[in-house]
Amino acid sequence: MLPRDLDDEDNYGRQHIRTLLNMVAHTHGYGKFVDLVRPFLLVIAHPALLDCLSVDTFVGGLYNFISGSNGSRAVPFFQRLSTNLLKQHLDSITHTQTKKLETTLIAMSTALRELLRREQRAIFHEDLPALVNSMENVVEATGIDSLSLAFQIVRNSIGELRGMIVRSQGLLQYEEEPQVGGVSAPVVTSTYPRDLILPRDRHDNDKMDITKIKVLPTEDEIRSDHVEFLPSTDRDQPHFLTDSAERHLDTHFRLLRHDIFGELSEALSGGLIALDNDPAVVEDPKFSLGNIRAYPHPKAHIRYVSFDQRRGLEAQVSFLQPFPLRKKSPPERRKWWEESKRLEEGILLCLLFVEDTKSSLLFFTVSEKCTDTRKEYGLSYDKHQATIKAKLATRSQNDFEAMTRLSCQKTHGLLVEFPGVLLATFVPILENIQKMQRLSRLPFRQWILPDRVSSHGAMSKAVDISPPLYARGPGFAFSLNPILKDPRGDMSLATTVPADSSYATEELEARTQLDRGQCQALIAALTREFAFIQGPPGTGKSYLGVQLMRVLLACKTKANLGPIVVVCYTNHALDQFLEHLIEVGIEKVIRMGSQSQSSLLEGKNLRVISKGESKTKSERYHLAMTYKALEAQEKTIRKLLGRLHGSQKRKDWASVENHILHKHPRIHSQFHRVDEDGFTTVGKEPFDIWAGDKLPAWSEQSEKAHLPLESIEHLLAQATQNVHRIALPNRHRLVDFWTEQMRNETTDELFEMVKHADNLHQQLTNVHDDVDRRVLQTADVIGVTTTGLARRIATLQHVRCKVVICEEAGEVMEPHMISALLPSVEHFIQIGDHQQLRPQVNNFQLSLESQRGTLYQLDRSQFERLSVGERGRPAFPVAQLSVQRRMRPDISKLIRETIYPRLLDHDVTRHLPDVVGMRKNVFWLDHDSVEESTQADKHQKSHSNLWEVNMTHALVRHIVRQGIYSSTDIAVLTPYTGQLQKLRAMMRNDFEVVLSERDQETLTRGGFNVEGASSESNETSGQVDPGFKPFQKKNMTELLRVATVDNFQGEEAKVVIVSLVRSNKEKKVGFLRTTNRINVLLSRAQHGLYLIGNTDTYLNQTMWASVHGMLQATDSVGKALGLCCPRHTDTEIQVSQPDDFARLSPEVARPLVERFYLADTHVQGLVANVIRRTRKTNPLSLTLYARNPAVDGLELATTTVRDVVTTAKIAALVYRPARFAVRTLDVRCDVMKHVHRVWRTVLGPANTGENVACRAPHHVVASHAISAAAESYPADISARDSVAKRARSTSAKHVQSIKKLESIFSK
């Protein structure tokens, strides 16, 4: 292993490096100097060395040695190298020498940047600015081509180095500011509208430099009464940092940290005050920290501190079981803990306790949730006490000492659980921003932070974005062949083509399946290194992303792109996008994260793939040595822990002898059993007799040895002379002093040992992460969510990838977007829509929706900020998609007239079917039933409207009973979690209700029990849910999606029903006052959209008033909803109350008996429907033939399917003739076999769709016989008067019937 050998004294690696670094060129020896140094630089700057996590420790040691003290060895060496490089080039200018110069400069700048990253003190070397100037002079004097890749790389590196130097000079300036009375002199400049205040010394974590701020709040910070320093995102407001990139990173670090910890710190501050006033609150199970989601666990104490070589140091924290669980059996307790969301791994805990009459706190994270009833130290074993394993959340020695001290004392406290705070999801983001600040690194800073322009003309001038760095070489062009209609065609796109080129757009539109807007967006994305694509609802953002990916992968090898990283905000969107890639033949896809719901991606998960990756010999050796070292550490640490716990339990001669022997040998000699006269003391040890028979145990109440130093010294001096002359009280003081000394020394030694063990664990993690890195490096596409990116940022930063595509960019907070700028990125593409949902923040005061939040705007994405533009700065160019294929024109009009004036409807939207059973496809049902008061129930934390719940439920049942739409085609949306909970409870009587993971989390955050009907707050008050009931079969046996608006972006449904909820005299609209939410709410439906809400409440909002006006113009607003019988279209049916559906719904009404269809099969009276497919070009018609005996003819129904299919037929067999509702059969054209058979059966009641509902189960078999097609496409076949229900496909009778039918079909 090269880094280890170079860093090894035994191999003389350091000696050789020292010789090389101290080398000096004489006379004409500069060429020899460069030739000797160049291979060394190429090695230490090689990507294989810098990216390999398993050798990172050795690489760090290597750079530490190269640097010398504060850069004293490295800076002079690089200075001599710059001088000799210039001399060599001027002496012999050849093409070969120029290439060597370029590679040497790249390696030099890379090595210097890496050195400053690892050895931060080297940045303060006084000759470093001169060195960077010298490197820049070499670049200019040698005349390297400014268009070359080498020039761009070296220039960027020099820019980063200069930024680091400027930042270091600023830090020195801050450190040299005068101090007055121990406090920094006030530096406040009066400006308008805000004062410039320096964040410094108001508490121990109030730092000007964010790299020195501890991520978790400190106790001093929590207790501080000073207002936290929160800089504004408005760049025209004053800030103490003048560099725009540094200010940007500083601002977003502080705002994101406050968003996570601001309210938590405020709540804990109140908790500490309450604990100071009344220490008994640690036993109060109803203790509240205010309006923050937190669960208190009373009478908590650290039971034991343990160490395991694999798990590290852990504390076993015990607390009282929730009261109702104490009456339950261990299996019942286990069930409750397993099904609850409480104390999940990674959740933040805070232990509040009182020590020496002063309250304090410690932060932990849950490391293991054990519910095994056989494990004594778990949550289910004991009926009175529950125990959880946790790790300290900080690496502070003070916190470590406090934890061990509390463990010895068994001090009781209050354990507070913060279920919404998972450190692993945001701490890496904050630490990465700190790292970027330390290195002064912000890629694409010229586009992310555009300069102010002085004139209006400059404002209107389009920003010219450079092509990606990898595409700037002469003659480079993107091949567009993968997306052409004609696979034999040839087309390319040069990066010199303007993004708005009409010629290129027209040619691309003619030769591909893309529409004009998609063509313009594709060109912009390929020719701009920092590109934005706005996709209004239904315009095919994902489809464009897939085509873009195909083009980029076509040049992957030529441009050495490495894997392309795809980042999405939600797991659902990421799964969908990766599935689309696989469907078009992109197989080398790796999905990171464990939250995927796609069966297609199971074998593509990084965890699965890495299991098959072998480790190298050096890695296996390194692992073996590290485990061996950890095993030795484990023995030592356990011994120290035993000594620590034992010293507090007993204070006899056995526990203190060694300490007194080493510290006070003359005192030790006085406790020998054999005295100076030769007499031997028998029985007890002389020390135990001297100290007294009943030595008091050390506890909170015992008198500790906090005596003045002189008193202890006096007692020790006296004891050295004659220990037996000391009075008994002072003897106790001495014993306590010695015990305290022992504990402190043991704790110090233990802390160092644990710290070393943590470093060993990090080395193990690096080896395993490096295996992941090697796997990721081989991929074509890496898919990850923003949360997953945060968790694995350390690994991804070592993957050489030049292209990052961010989907749903409008929903991503800017700090997360900044973290997605991986070190090697050269091409960054954001696809999103800032007119839809904004990023979600925890603290409302940082949001644009609050008056105070306009200063901070943390919920404004980078996509929105740059697309809209900032005051005095040019707006960023955005390519907008313009053709929507989702909504019928009646629906798309609502957002076209209010938000997207350029939005066009594709022709397919004009032929979408009407909603069967409804008079109107779009309607706003007006009512005046007031919402429920939030004060009516102390546990209710959100708005709801019971009348709308009942009306929505009745409407869903009506639409489903018409037989065209199953409940899976319907989505019920609402803005409030309170209404979501009530809708879910109501719908579960008839449907299998589906909630997304994000909605489940939203319900939990709102205090609602996700699995039960009661709120989780009941549990803390003693009303613990006995268990969460699983879903059961309901009457309609269908899945129904119920969701909040905020968690339904990016999804769609054929029919959408919206419960608006708010209905009040004050006309408060609440969440739906923002156009972003209204836009999402109105744009999810394909066929039908139904709003249920009080129009009078919503008309005060501008966009709602416009929507109301458009609907009113088409008579689509009213107090009654028009229903329609599909067989009697002239019959008027109006419903205005939920109960009206039971009386008037066409499904249960008694109209005239209609004709029905029976296929003449003569097979045991079976009903059969036949679908034939003939070979045609796109579009392909499917024809349904159904014999109607009443009219002696065939009734036909057709539908359209994409692409070419040879033949297909579907037989639906129904026992007992009956009249059936219209069903939808999903047919998939399979390309794997010539003929693919699918048997699908479903059990349930079949409705006649006539005068009565037939509840008897009718057994059915659906047989799909499908031949090969050019490609594999899903085809939805709406077959009138056919049904697919359950049957036993193995029945001989069914097989015989099918054979007879096939014989008939073949004729």
From TrEMBL:
The lineage of its organism: Eukaryota, Fungi, Dikarya, Ascomycota, Pezizomycotina. It holds the Pfam family AAA_12. One of its GO terms (cellular component) is nuclear RNA-directed RNA polymerase complex. Residues 1008-1027 are annotated as: Disordered. Residues 1012-1023 have a biased composition (Polar residues). InterPro entries: DNA2/NAM7-like, DNA2/NAM7-like_C, DNA2/NAM7_AAA_11, P-loop_NTPase, SF1_C_Upf1. GO terms for biological process: regulatory ncRNA-mediated heterochromatin formation. Keywords: ATP-binding, Helicase, Hydrolase, Nucleotide-binding. Residues 858-1095 form the DNA2/NAM7 helicase-like C-terminal domain. This is NFX1-type zinc finger-containing protein 1. Residues 513-841 form the DNA2/NAM7 helicase helicase domain. One of its GO terms (molecular function) is helicase activity.
